[in-house]
């Protein structure tokens, strides 16, 4: 039977929270020395999030449900539930159809004034909840215009998220421009004419956006409840964080896929071909390693959360013996060691969490926010040569022992 801690963990799943937390995705939980604090920097209130010492904790009592932390988290350790991504995407698709192709998102404060037709826009608690994946997919779906309506943030409890919202708008527009798309994301304090509520609008005939999202939230809650009750009946034990982060045979921590990144790439693919060779972005990164300074410890691959950087199965060629060189077994081993090793790096899987750079003891690895669009849209990883692990490298010995 489950113990008390198991029951408490499962009970937490039934609480109505604006953020669902997956600690094992957090790079700071995986490595306490990781520098990522993006969620704390985006959060407008103190106490809602606590991060450090291999722990990520969310306190719903302090949370104002703006969703800003879920937008900036590179590994999606923080996921929004009010509304969830799927419901928001479904809601804006319906609203865009009613608005003649104009995709409009509005914050709850503006929505409460009752000046917009709820059938023609999608409501979120705060525009800090909006992220690039959603905006790029709306553009790929053929939106004629994309507008975020949020009124006067200076007197709103969410006002500290306004700068983050603008960062998202700028990031999305940069991607749209690099793909030659005509549509751009705009912010406004007034309703677009085609969304403004008119006297002859019969909104009672349709389901309001608020009711739509509440229905989605209840569906998600019922699903979680069913899963928990099933686990309780079967006496299943919930794996601890240590068990979930158990090192694999190759010495690396478990990998996972950040779901929004592939959906964003799919949207870009639907928009067409990129018209710029390089792209400055906060969504992906490009890893470079100074091979002359590298010790070959491969700790960067151990802590990479998404598997963007892994040890390659392809081996570099063994250097040929020079003329007159001793052909002894010792010389052969030295040449074998000199061949080094390959790492495989995939730009599309890199989430720019900087975990690899943080763990690098030699500080020879950098994560560049400027990526090559050809590499981003390619399925082929790039090979990076690094030297073989040094014999006196204790980290290397530990990794070899896990093979």
Automatic annotation (TrEMBL):
GO terms for molecular function: 4 iron, 4 sulfur cluster binding; metal ion binding. Keywords: 4Fe-4S, Iron, Iron-sulfur, Metal-binding. Residues 54-83, 285-314, 341-370 form the 4Fe-4S ferredoxin-type domain. Its cofactor is [4Fe-4S] cluster. InterPro entries: 4Fe4S_Fe-S-bd, 4Fe4S_Fe_S_CS, PSI_iron-sulfur_center. It comes from the Bacteria. Pfam families: Fer4_10 (PF13237), Fer4_7 (PF12838). PANTHER family: PHOTOSYSTEM I IRON-SULFUR CENTER (PTHR24960:SF79), PHOTOSYSTEM I IRON-SULFUR CENTER-RELATED (PTHR24960). This is 4Fe-4S binding protein. It comes from Candidatus Aveggerthella stercoripullorum.
């Amino acid at each position: 039977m489950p113990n008390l801690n198991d029951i408490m963990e499962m009970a937490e799943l039934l609480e109505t929270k604006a953020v669902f937390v997956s600690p094992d995705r957090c790079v700071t939980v995986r490595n306490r020395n990781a520098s990522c604090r993006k969620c704390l920097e985006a959060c407008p209130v103190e106490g809602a999030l606590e991060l450090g010492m291999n722990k990520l904790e969310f306190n719903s009592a302090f949370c104002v449900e703006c969703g800003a932390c879920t937008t900036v988290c590179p590994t999606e350790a923080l996921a929004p539930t009010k509304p969830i991504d799927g419901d928001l995407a479904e809601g804006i698709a319906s609203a865009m159809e009613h608005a003649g192709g104009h995709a409009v998102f509005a914050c709850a404060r503006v929505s409460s004034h009752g000046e917009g037709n709820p059938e023609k826009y999608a409501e979120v608690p705060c525009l800090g909840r909006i992220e690039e994946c959603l905006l790029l997919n709306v553009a790929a779906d053929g939106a004629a215009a994309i507008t975020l309506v949020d009124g006067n943030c200076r007197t709103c409890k969410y006002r500290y998220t306004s700068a983050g919202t603008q960062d998202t708008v700028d990031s999305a527009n940069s991607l749209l421009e690099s793909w030659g798309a005509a549509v751009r994301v705009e912010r406004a304090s007034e309703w677009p004419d085609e969304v403004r509520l008119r006297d002859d609008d019969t909104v009672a005939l349709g389901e309001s956006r608020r009711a739509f999202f509440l229905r989605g939230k209840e569906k998600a809650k019922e699903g979680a409840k069913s899963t928990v009750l099933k686990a309780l009946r079967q006496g299943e034990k919930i794996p601890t964080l240590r068990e979930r982060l158990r090192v694999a045979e190759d010495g690396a921590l478990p990998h996972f896929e950040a779901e929004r990144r592939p959906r964003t790439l799919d949207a870009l693919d639907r928009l067409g071909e990129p018209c710029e060779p390089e792209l400055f972005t906060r969504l992906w990164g490009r890893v470079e390693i100074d091979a002359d300074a590298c010790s070959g410890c491969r700790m960067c691959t151990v802590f990479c959360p998404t598997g963007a950087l892994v040890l390659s199965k392809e081996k570099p060629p063994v250097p040929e013996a020079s003329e007159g060189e001793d052909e002894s077994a010792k010389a052969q081993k030295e040449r074998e060691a000199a061949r080094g090793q390959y790492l495989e790096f995939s730009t599309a899987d890199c989430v720019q969490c900087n975990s690899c750079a943080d763990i690098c003891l030699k500080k020879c690895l950098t994560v560049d926010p400027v990526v090559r669009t050809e590499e981003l849209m390619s399925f082929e990883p790039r090979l990076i040569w690094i030297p073989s692990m040094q014999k006196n490298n204790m980290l290397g010995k530990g990794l070899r022992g896990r093979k």
